[in-house]
UniProtKB/TrEMBL annotation:
Gene giving rise to this polypeptide: helD
UniProt protein name: RNA polymerase recycling motor HelD
Annotated SUPFAM superfamilies: P-loop containing nucleoside triphosphate hydrolases
Residue ranges of domain UvrD-like helicase ATP-binding in the record: 211-639
Pfam family of the protein (one): UvrD_C_2
Annotated organism of origin: Cohnella cellulosilytica
Length: 814
């Protein structure tokens, strides 16, 4: 067949499928509407159908069963309606572009070649037997991503099916018309991928379903390991693969897995909004999305003020000259380490024999139960009882003690005084209580009378209901009960545990610390670390690096919190989490599989965890046999020129492979002063817009630098600027002025690095931040400096960039 004939035949098939789709949509519409009406109708008539009669036990039973029956009918109709609506939505999603791929596959031993068209949902012939379109997540469709024409095979629940792939075709279909058609033979999807990647950045991440690469497919379909770690270069599609994976899991386990049983931990709230449309686009409900900080705030935020990772980062970037900087850095590293994790475990063990601290219970300026009493009680327990169980026992004891004390308290003088100040409402309450008691009393009296008559037994002394005495008793009890309520509540909330003190006492003398945690050594600069931590705690504040260890220890004492509902946890930008955070997540979600995606080349936080090797602490946490490690080295986001440039910024960047897509070389712009920087940038932004780029970013190192650049650019008349801060919730098109650490995970058509001087990016610890900033660019990258350049550029060959020198005498490279 000539190319033209092929094209024509495919368009004919497409037209026929589109016709069937339209017919099915038309067919389903009234059905779906009909069911909806039925559901509304049943809801409305729900109580009409049920005669509520509870006079006898049988009537009651009958009523109960009718209600149950009606509810079952309703829920069945609702389920059918939901399914129908979903089917209808899937068909509508398919209509403009029913499929993006086709493979012709002949199974070994058969002479029939099956044509398999692949799209975002399945669509069957009327007979329900033949697939007109296969969902991309079906086992057979995996060959589209994994194999080239020739020998091919795919996995099914029943085993491997092998055969020959005779054709592999890709389509780009828009509004029911084939726009492009390629027969692939070498690399999967190169042409189509070229086209997709050449497009502009969006305010929302896109699904990559039509062009998933083989190594990404492995991530998406991995269903074996408890821990899946993906170490991938910037722009290698980690986030994309993660989202596709969620969609795959929801399809593969559709009868057992719900979207709310998958949780994604994102680097910041803006990223949440950036990725939130991918799953709905694929016809799935969104998973739960959160940030670790949100979680910490939830559990600790009411009693302590928490530093967030961005403030910690700002401190690291801006306070370098300040006293105590080195100690803080040492502290950050130590508090994220395996040693500290082990130390806290040991410490909790030791608390079983000594060292626990309690908050005494005070009432009206008196000690009701002292901390010493609690300590004595706590350590008089059987030594084999675990810490958290002991806490439970102590709590029960305290509640019992409070009951006793409460009873005694009724005779106290202050209660007598309060009696005189009661308001009408309190009296009314007591009276209604008394009436109730009175009727019980009267009923008892009557019962006794009847019993005496029937049994001819003499009844005992008649009772006497003393109203006044009972009234005072009740009033006193009520007063004391009310004032003891907060005490009970605080005991229930475990406020008698002085977790704060238990944590704070760690930061004292080095010898004491070693003894408490059973570790032979303390980290360098320990006295300064202690001083800083204690000063912070004294203000009821916690450093970011202390927050997770604190919560971890709190739970070792109070009892571990777990969520057994969640089945999959995804951690994006996984290199930025400490081992503590992983240990915590593992404990919190005991039934979940973990998917961790990260890039050690972008590890900008001090608590970073190396994900690269099998000896990574994260792998140790789960054990090697429970772990799969996948590396992605091909970078899709940026043009070849940008990737070649940025890989020179990392010491081990050689292994990053650019995808063959061309654009201009990165541009280094030397300017004379601030004024000139702003003039040049304003002009560059306008030019880039002229070129058709819609999503642009001026990336700075710190928040303060962003605010300043924003002010200056705005004053210069630059329009549509948006200053991004850690509070920003939505990603939008236009020009963003954004600190590098907030630009993690997102991308822009063009990036302008506001200041690439050694002053901004000079210390080794800033290398990865600089790399992260530069790798946000898809098509264009420009760097600005008033003079010398960051030393990180010394690893980049001169031929990989262009330099525009504005001033005589300024060197291009520093
Ligand atoms: N198979 C693919 N087909 C089409 N586009 C892809 C593919 N893989 C990745 N991309 C595109 O490459 C860009 C980078 O992808 P993504 O953000 O998922 O990478 P990442 O590894 O998470 O990056 P980073 O670590 O820098 O945040 C996105 O625009 C994404 O759509």
């Amino acid at each position: 067949m000539t190319n033209e004939q092929v094209w024509q035949a495919e368009q004919e098939r497409l037209d026929s499928v589109a016709g069937k789709l339209r017919a099915r949509i038309a067919e389903l519409e009234p059905e779906a509407a009909g069911l909806r009406e039925q559901v509304t109708d049943i809801r409305k008539r729900f109580w009409e159908e049920v005669t509520v009669n509870t006079s006898t036990e049988e009537d009651f039973e009958e009523t109960f069963f009718t209600i149950q029956q009606q509810a079952a009918v309703l829920s069945e109709r609702e389920r059918s309606h939901r399914q129908l609506v979903q089917q209808w939505q899937n068909l509508n999603r398919l209509l403009p572009s029913p499929y993006f791929g086709r493979i012709d596959f002949r199974e070994d031993g058969s002479d029939l070649t099956e044509r398999i068209y692949i799209g975002v949902a399945s669509f069957l012939e009327e007979d329900g037997m033949d697939f007109l379109v296969y969902d991309w997540r079906t086992p057979i469709a995996s060959m589209y991503y994994d194999c080239l024409p020739g020998a091919a095979a795919y996995d099914t629940p029943g085993g491997l099916i092998a055969g020959t792939m005779e054709l592999k075709r890709q389509f780009r279909i828009e509004d029911g018309q084939i726009r492009h058609l390629f027969d692939a033979n070498v690399t999967i999807g190169d042409e189509l991928l070229q086209q997709v990647l050449g497009k502009g950045a969006d305010a929302q991440m896109k699904s990559i379903v039509a062009t998933i690469q083989k190594e990404q497919n492995e991530i998406i379909r991995n269903d074996k390991s408890r821990l899946l770690v993906v170490q991938g270069a910037a722009g290698s599609g980690k986030t994309s693969a993660a989202l596709q994976r969620a969609a795959y899991l929801l399809y593969r386990h559709r009868n057992t897995l719900r979207a709310d049983q998958i949780v994604l931990f994102s680097p910041n709230p803006m990223f949440n909004s950036y990725v939130s449309t991918v799953l709905p686009e694929l016809g799935e409900e969104n998973m739960q999305q959160t940030t670790f900080q949100e979680y910490l705030e939830y559990w600790l935020g009411s009693s302590l003020t928490l530093e967030d990772p961005f403030d910690q980062m700002e401190y690291m970037l801006a306070e370098q000259a300040g006293s105590g900087y080195e100690a803080r850095l040492e502290g950050m590293k130590y508090k994220a380490s395996e040693s500290y994790l082990r130390a806290l475990g040991q410490y909790a063990k030791r608390l079983e024999t000594t060292g626990m601290r309690f908050n005494g219970i005070r009432f009206r300026d008196r000690d009701l139960i002292t901390a010493e009493q609690m300590t004595t009680r706590f350590y008089s327990c059987d030594p084999s009882i675990r810490l958290a169980n002991r806490v439970n026992l102590l709590q029960e004891w305290l509640l019992r003690e409070l009951s006793l004390l409460e009873r005694k308290e009724r005779e106290a003088l202050w209660v007598q005084e309060e009696l005189n100040y009661l308001d009408n409402e309190q009296y009314a309450e007591v009276h209604s209580q008394l009436h109730k008691e009175r009727s019980v009393f009267d009923f008892g009296e009557r019962y006794e009378e009847v019993r005496a008559k029937l049994t001819h037994e003499r009844r005992g002394d008649e009772g006497d209901f003393d109203y006044a005495e009972r009234e005072e008793e009740l009033l006193r009890a009520g007063i004391v009960k009310e004032s003891f309520k907060p005490l009970r509540r605080s005991v229930r909330k475990l406020a008698f545990l002085d977790v704060y003190g238990v944590y704070a006492q760690l930061f004292g003398d080095a010898a004491a610390y070693r003894e408490m945690v059973g570790e032979p050594a303390v980290p360098a600069l320990w006295p300064d670390i202690c001083k800083q931590t204690r000063e912070k705690l004294a203000r009821f504040e916690l450093f970011y690096e202390d927050a997770t260890p604190y919560l971890y220890l709190k739970e070792l004492i109070e009892g571990v919190r777990t969520n057994t509902e969640v089945r999959h946890v995804f951690v994006d930008e996984g290199q930025d989490y400490s081992l503590f955070q992983y240990a915590y997540l593992k404990r919190l979600f005991p039934r979940a599989r973990m998917t961790v995606l990260g890039d050690f080349g972008q590890a900008i936080f001090a608590q970073a965890t190396d994900l690269r090797e099998s000896e990574s602490p994260l792998v140790r946490l789960y054990g090697e046999s429970e772990t799969t490690l996948i590396r992605l080295v091909r970078s899709y986001r940026s043009t070849r020129e940008i990737v070649e440039f940025t890989k020179g910024l990392l010491p081990d960047g050689e292994e990053i492979v650019p995808f063959e897509r061309s654009g201009g070389k990165p541009l280094l712009m030397t300017v004379r002063n601030e004024e000139e920087r702003i003039v040049k940038m304003t002009a560059a932004l306008a030019e880039l817009r002229e070129e058709g780029f819609a999503t642009l970013a001026v990336i700075t190192k710190t928040a303060a630098e962003s605010a300043e650049a924003y002010e200056r650019l705005t004053a210069r008349g630059c329009e549509n600027l948006r200053l991004v801060t850690k509070e920003t919730l939505f990603f939008e098109k236009g020009v963003m002025v954004i600190p590098a650490y907030l630009a993690k995970g997102v991308e822009f058509d063009a990036v302008l690095i506001n200041d690439a001087s050694p002053g901004a990016y000079g210390r080794e610890s800033e290398r990865k931040l600089f790399y992260t900033a530069c790798t946000r660019a898809m098509h264009r990258l420009q760097l600005y400096s008033t003079g010398a350049w960051t030393p990180f550029l010394s690893g980049v060959e001169d031929s990989l960039y262009e330099a525009e020198q504005q001033v005589e005498g300024y060197p291009v490279k520093g």
